[in-house]
Design a protein that fits this description.
The protein has about 110 residues and is α/β, with parallel strands linked by helices. Helix content is about 25%, strand content about 20%. The two termini are about 20 Å apart.
């Protein structure tokens, strides 16, 4: 099964960008800002007030995601450019966080 991995906010308001797509198409749950939900997985890049999280906090959520991916080898995770749209970070800020991801994690072309 393929899981759509998107950047979210801690309030779980999936109103724009990849989060809206996840809500409309991939089973994301409105009000849930972290983790597996239907055919999607939310990694917070913004807080509950929709302000961008500091990179250190995003890094913690990315680490949780990578650990989840290791524990679920039957799933394939297709990661979007989380944090590089509405959260305002650059690829160079976020992509290194995914270094060492397991083989069932497919990263954006720009990050490889």
């Amino acid at each position: 099964m393929s899981i759509f991995v998107f950047g979210s906010n801690l309030a779980g308001r999936h109103g724009k960008g990849a989060a809206l797509y996840a809500l409309q198409v991939c089973g994301a749950i409105y009000g849930q800002g972290v983790g597996l939900q239907g055919g999607s997985y939310a990694i917070p890049t913004k807080d509950e007030h929709i302000r961008s999280l500091p990179l250190d906090e995003i890094r913690k959520y990315v680490q949780e995601f990578k650990e989840f991916a290791v524990k679920n080898p039957a799933l394939t995770f297709r990661v979007t450019r989380i944090g590089c749209g509405l959260a305002g970070y650059d690829d160079i800020d976020i992509s290194p966080m995914f270094k060492g991801s397991p083989k069932n994690v497919i990263l954006p072309e720009q990050w490889e």
